[in-house]
Amino acid sequence: LPYAHLRSNLAIIRRRLNRPLTLSEKILYSHLCDPESQEIAPGSSFLKLQPDRVAIHDANATMALLQFMSAGIDKTALPTTIHTDHLTMAEGGSRAVPGDQGKQDLVAAKIKHKEVFEFLASASARFGIGFWKPGSGILHTILFENYVFPGGLLVGTDSHTPNAAGMAMLGIGVGGSDAVDAMTGLPWELPCPKVLGVRLTGKLNGWASSKDIICHLAGLISVTGGKGKIVEFFGPGVNTLGATAMATVGNMSAEIDLDALEPTINGPFTPDLSHPLSKLGQAVSENGWPKHLAASLVGSCTNSSYEDLMKVAGLLDQARAAGVKLKTPFYVLTGSEQIRATAEDAGFLTSVRDAGGIVLSSSCGPCVGQWNRQDVPKGEANSVISSFNRNFTGRHDGNPGTHSFVTSPEIATAFAFSGSLDFNPATDTISDGQGGAFKFEIPTGDQLPSTFNPGEWLYQAPLSDEKASKVEVKINSDSDRLQKLQPFTPWREGNAEDLTILIKVKGKCTTDHISPAGPWYDYRGHLDNISNNMLTGAENAFYPLPDHPRGIARHATTGQIEAVPVIARAYKAAGIKYCIIGHNNYGEGSSREHAALEPRYLGASIVIANGFARIHETNLKKQGMLPLTFADPEAWSKIQERDRVSVFGVEEMQPGKQLEMMVKSTDGSSWSTMLNHSYHSGQIPWLMHGSALNYVKSLKAGK
Predict the structure, then answer these.
(1) Which family is this sequence assigned to (predicted)?
(2) Which of 102, 242, 630, 651 could anchor a disulfide with 447, C-beta 3.0 to 4.6 Å?
(3) 481 an active-site residue?
(4) Which residue among the candidates 159, 253, 362, 590 is catalytic per the annotation?
C-alpha cells in the first residue's frame, strides 16, 4: 500500500496550509500529483489527482473500454476492475419462482448477454484489467470485500462509489470518460470540494439503523446539498457504527442525535422527501399515494451486508413462529457471492424461502431497473418499498406510476407482513389469523460472521503482459450490442449560433430521464442504438404532464409532435443545429455518461440550464459539449418553443468569463442574457478538439 508516498505528500500539504485538516482533506490532498504547487481553493480550483484504483460496472464498462481502446494504449496505468452486476434482469410477478429465482435469472443473463460478457472478459484480459464474472456480486460489495483500504482514493463509474467510506477510503463517482483518463495514466481532475461536517452524537436504538441516518440527512440537505462537497461524519456517534454501517451511510451521502433518530422512509420519486416512520401513514393519506404495498425488496450495495441479512432473517423467523404470513411479494438480493454463500451457511436464505420470499441473484437487479414486473400494468399507480438507494420515477421497473419508498432492510421486511404503508412495527400489531395479535421484537444482527464462505470463485485475474498482448478483443462487426466509436468532430465557428430548441426540460431531470436504463442496458455498448432513448423520460415544459407524455417535442420544420430522439436524428440528418434547455440540477443521479454521449452523437452542441449535477456536467465537457448556466435563473421561464438561440464568444472563451446569449422570437423581437460556465484553462481544449479523448490523442501525437 502506498502509505509512505501518501505520508510524504501530506507533510508537504501540512506545511503549505498550516492548519488542521479533516480526514477527507488528508486523504484527498495526499493524492495530489503536485502537492508543492497545486492550488487548493475549495469551491473554485481544480485538483489534479492520482487515484489508487479504478472500478467500472458492466453497464458502463463497454463504452469505457471502447474509449480506452481508441486511445491506443496497451495496458491500464492504474489497477482496474470490471464488475458484471447491472445486466442481470430479475423476474417479477407471476413469473418469479418462490425460493431461488436468482439462479434462473443468472442463467438467462449469461445467455442473453453472452456477446457483451465475452467482450468484457477479452478486453479485460488484453488490457491488464481484473474481471469479476456474472454472479460474483455488486461492484461496491466486491470492492469492500477485496480492495478498499483506509486512506486510499478510489474512482468508480457509479454514483454510489462513496460506499468505500465505510473503510475510511475516499470513493468518488465518475463518468466513464473520467475513468478512462485515470486508466490511461492522466491526472484525474476534480473540482476542489468543500467539506460538510455532520456531527453524530448518541447511539442508534430501537428500530433505527444506519440507513436512517442518511435518509434523515437527505431530507435535511436535499439531493443538491452535497454538490461540490464531501460529507464527513464525526463525533462520538461515529464510534458506535461498524464498517458496514458506515458504508451504508457513505453509499448515499448538521448534527444528528442518534439517540433521538427514529426509522425514516424517503419517497416517493425522490430520495430527499423524508418521512419519520411515525408520520408516514399521515403523509400517504394526505397525498393520496397508494397505501397498499405491491412489493418489498431488500438488498443492493447499500444494504446487503451480513448484519442486514441477519436482521431480516430474524424478523422472518419471528413471523413464521407466530404463524404470520407475508402479505406482499418479498425479494432479497445478496451483495456478493461471498455474502450469498455465507448467508446460506447461516440459514438466513432458508428463512427467506420458508417465509415464501424470493432470493434473487447477487446483482443490482431492480435497484437499477432490471426488474421484469408482470403484476402491474405500465402507468398504473402502485407502491413498493425497498432498502435500495434511488427511487426516481420509473427507476426500478420503468413504470412512471410506481411510487417507490426507500428505507432500511428491517422496516422493508416488517412492512411486507403488513402489506400497507400505514404500519409502524415499533407500535402496531398484526393479526396472526387466529384471533391473536403479533408484534415484532426489535431485530438484532452481528456485524461479521465467525468466518466467511467465499462461495464459487468468479474472478478472472489480469494476465502477464506477454499473455495479454496475444489476446484478441471480441467484437462482432454486425453486432447490435457493440459498436466501435468514431471520434467526434472538433468545434466549428458558428456552432453556437441560430440554434433551434430541441426541448425545454421542466423539473427533475436525472440521467435516468435523459438515458433510461432497464431494457436499454442491452445497448450500452452501441451508441447509435442506445441514442434512441435520449430524453424519453424528460418532461417538456411546452407539453407538460399530466396532459402530455414524457419525451416528446415539436419538430421545428414539420410541426409534428414526435419523440425527442426521432426529432434529434432528423435535425442531425438535415444539418439543423440545436440546443437543449435544462432546468435545475440537470443530470443528477447515476453517473452514466451515455446521458452526455447521446446528445453529442445526435448533433447537440450546447446544454443550457439553471444548474448541473457535478458528474453530468463533467461528462458533457468530456464529450465536447458545452454546458452553460443562466446567470439569471428567471431567463429559463422566458424561453419559448420557437425561439432561436445564439451564444457569442465561445471561440474566445476564457475561465471565469461570461458568455452572452441572444434569443430571437418569431415576432422579430429579441432579448439577451448572460451565461456562466465552469471551464478552466485545461478543459477548454476538450471543447475545441471535439472531446477530451480527442485532445489526449492529439497530445500523444505531438500536435
Answers:
(1) Belongs to the aconitase/IPM isomerase family.
(2) 242
(3) no
(4) 590
Q: Where are the domains of the chain?
A: 3-38, 53-196, 276-437, 499-700
Q: List own/partner pairs for 343-346 with CB under 8 A and 24 or more apart.
A: 343/306, 343/309, 343/313, 344/453, 345/453, 346/306, 346/309, 346/310, 346/313, 346/449
Catalytic residue among 126, 390, 594, 644: 390
Cβ(221)–Cβ(254) below 8 Å: yes
| CATH number of 499-700, picked from 3.40.50.1820, 3.40.190.10, 3.20.19.10, 3.90.1750.10 | 3.20.19.10
pLDDT at position 604: 97
Report the distance separating Cα 703 and Cα 700, nearest Å. Answer: 8
> Same CATH topology for 53-196 and 276-437?
yes
Question: Is 85 one of the annotated active-site residues of the chain?
Answer: yes
Q: Give yes or no: 86 in active site.
A: yes
List the catalytic residue out of 592, 594, 600, 689. Answer: 592
End-to-end CA distance of the chain: 37
pLDDT in tens, 472-510: 999 988 899 999 899 999 999 889 999 999 999 999 999
**What distance in Å separates the CA atoms of residue 557 and residue 555, rounded to the nearest whole number?**
6
* Catalytic option among 85, 105, 181, 522: 85
CATH of 53-196, one of 3.30.499.10, 2.170.150.20, 1.10.600.10, 2.60.120.280: 3.30.499.10
Stretch 281-303: mean pLDDT? 94
